[in-house]
Amino acid sequence: MDLTLLREYILRASKHVKRIAYLIAAIGAAASYGTQVELLVKWGMGTPFSQIIPATIDLLAICAAIGMTIPGLPDKDRRYVSLVLIIAVLVSGTANFMGGHNWVTRVGHTWPVVAYLLAEGIANRIRTYQANIEARASVPQHKVETPVHATVTVRKPAAITASKPGSAKSKILELAAASPSLSHDEIAATVGVKPGWVRYVLKNK
Q: Which of 122, 86, 117, 99 is nearest to 50 (CA)?
């Protein structure tokens, strides 16, 4: 499989997931705003606070969601932003739950907020994976050179052929016929053979 095409597919898919998460967030904010306003009015809070306060909850959640998208955010700060997002979602979910007239409406009002929290969790993991893919893509690929193996031919040294005594036979005969005569030991030392071979040559000449 082509890694370049796979990387491009992952990046496109991650963008779609993030867009869907933002769409769920917009739906959740729109659905919960009216419920929260009605809840505050029901408990005696007048305008404009009954209309402003619910907006701060949704805006805080959106602000935290945007903060989670910042690349390179330190882990300590990312944990803080995640905590703010969870608190904002919990407050919004609780207000929506209390604003329902029965169990069905309570679950219906609360679900968009829960769905947004789940979608944001998916988008956050996709963003982390996408950042890792882009980081690996930006690292230059070093070409690995194939080592060249040189074949060394080791030749055995030519065997040194020792001179056989037979090749010195003529020299032994020449030294034996020379005057003054040499002893067998002296001839053997001169030719480089054993005295026994000198005696053998002279005996069988």
A: 99
pTM confidence score: 0.53
Q: Which domain holds residue 116?
A: 3-138
Residue 16 shares a structural domain with residue 105: yes
Distance CA 95, CA 106 (A): 10
pLDDT tens, residue by residue, 180-195: 777 878 888 888 888 7
Q: Where residue 83 falls among pLDDT bands split at 50, 70, 90? A: very high
